Amino acid sequence: MKLATLKDGSRDGQLIVVSRDLGTAHFATGIAGRLQQALDDWNFIAPQLQDVSDALNQGRARHAFPFDPAQCMAPLPRAYQWLDGSAYLNHVELVRAAGRSDVPERFYTEPLMYQGGSDDLLGACDDILVSAEAFGIDFEAELAVITADVPMGVTPDQGLDAVRLLMLANDVSLRHLIASEVETRLGLVQGKPSTAFSPVAVTPDELGDAWQDGRVHLTLQTSWNGRKVGMCDAGPDMRFHFGELIAHAARTRRLRAGTIVGSGTVSNPGVEQNGRREWPKGYGCIAERRAMETLQDGAATTDYMKFGDRLRIEMKGRDGHTLFGVIDQKVVQYTP
Amino acid sequence: MKLATLKDGSRDGQLIVVSRDLGTAHFATGIAGRLQQALDDWNFIAPQLQDVSDALNQGRARHAFPFDPAQCMAPLPRAYQWLDGSAYLNHVELVRAAGRSDVPERFYTEPLMYQGGSDDLLGACDDILVSAEAFGIDFEAELAVITADVPMGVTPDQGLDAVRLLMLANDVSLRHLIASEVETRLGLVQGKPSTAFSPVAVTPDELGDAWQDGRVHLTLQTSWNGRKVGMCDAGPDMRFHFGELIAHAARTRRLRAGTIVGSGTVSNPGVEQNGRREWPKGYGCIAERRAMETLQDGAATTDYMKFGDRLRIEMKGRDGHTLFGVIDQKVVQYTP
């Protein structure tokens, strides 16, 4: 099933069930008002939501209404936890190479992860508010899962069993702030403003065979100002699958239901072509593009995003239909 | 007023109002069931809670019951955000000196801060569950505030106005995991298990004159296995006050109501005594103690906490009475 949260003026919005084709929706009234409620008591509530979903998909829901992604908050508008991994090693290699720093050996055996802010997550069509272009405004096209309760010390397999829902994410990054913030060695606060999520969150069964080994074997499409910049394969190059990311996060503490875990920027390695390294699948963030330019020509020429820029992220199923709906955001100047 | 959250088997517990002397309590039923609800709508709900508080303190509350800190969850058992500063520079200087790394100049002008996990915060008397002593189990005695909604780009003064409640915190740290985790430059995940908070959260007026310039001018007392190890002055040595910490966190994003911001380990600089550097006020975490030993004698001799160890943190008002109640935790081995 597919779930979304409708803007209603409240902090947590209103939970709705959305049809598979994202054409229609139905309130979950009487079952659960908010997605967090459903996650808190999933085994009891999910089957009831599934009934609504079945009715919607069969065209027999009595109070269905047209689904409008622009009216969506993030599926979880405020979450108790947002942990973002960096599971595509090519992203790490590129960004590090451009910064002239090596990739430590351990990054190949242990997931990289940062703790993000989760109190104010953005809807798929919400503006990206930034006060200065000089911060180096970048996008990051990612996948993310929402978990059940996860006990401390789980195995990757057990971690995988805790995956309840999947989403797309745009993990907005302020590169020039990050460059200085990582020097504190305490992680990212100012460099990571609010993250945006796809209109709907879907249960793993909606992905069919494409959900395998804790990875989504589909193409993540990223467009920047209408130009397709990334057609990245989210499958095999994900070094650590979602169960491994969850197990990493739960090594020294339990994770509570509603924890969001991200994949990091989806990224595929380059290939040698005519004596030159090329990345035919494009990029999932501008930092990667700039790294490619630096490696190819010695200098980055692509600038970060400007006010007014648009960013679009989407993933289609094997049937060619959109799975999560479209993240479609505009960068807008914030003035206090 | 003083607020607490009683264990009732639910994820968020039950909001109660506690008398100034922590002797009695009263359910906030009919006003707000959970502290987050009160924070979401503070201007409407706080005056009603204040009425209950007044009745309690005047001994005219009709359904008062004895207050038991052992029955408390964290005042916010799961929060949408937990950001911990490192506002006492002496802590940073000590820990860095022991690790033979310099304190960058910027640390004196810009607050250090990390994003912590907030999905599973511990009550004041909850066990500290750790799977291995080899992780280097440490405590950190801190102050923390809970904020109202904070717009992006606020000034420190505006940040200070957003302080709704104050608490004590034990920011448990796994030193040997942190040592390796900071090398990722993405911050702390495994090195920071669940943080514990004092039984009650109090409004700033409960501190009287001791709450000044965004700082708490009182002594934070820390005992480890019954031995007083820290009598640290939380006031003047706090380089960045809570308004400055909040403004730092809100530079590139707004903070939503219920955000918890910590001070970092409360720590006072050493003094030269008989030709030797001494820290007469003691320490707020073992890492500091080990740094002091290293600076004095070339090697750390104090070990980190063992299973069965107890840790106690308290702060008394100028009248000698406990302000927040006592954090009193035991380290217990976790087995999955």
From TrEMBL, chains A, B:
Describe the location of the Fumarylacetoacetase N-terminal domain by residue ranges. Answer: 1-78
Residue ranges of the Fumarylacetoacetase-like C-terminal domain?
A: 83-331
Identification of the protein by name: Fumarylacetoacetate hydrolase family protein
Q: Which key words tag this protein in UniProt?
A: Hydrolase
A GO molecular function for this record?
A: hydrolase activity
Entry keyword Hydrolase: yes
The lineage is: Bacteria, Pseudomonadati, Pseudomonadota, Betaproteobacteria, Burkholderiales
* Source species, domain of life: Bacteria
Which InterPro entries has this protein been placed in? Answer: FAA_hydro_N, Fumarylacetoacetase-like_C, Fumarylacetoacetase_C_sf
Instruction: Give the residue spans that cross the bilayer.
Output: none
Pfam families named among the record's database cross-references: FAA_hydro_N_2 (PF18288), FAA_hydrolase (PF01557)
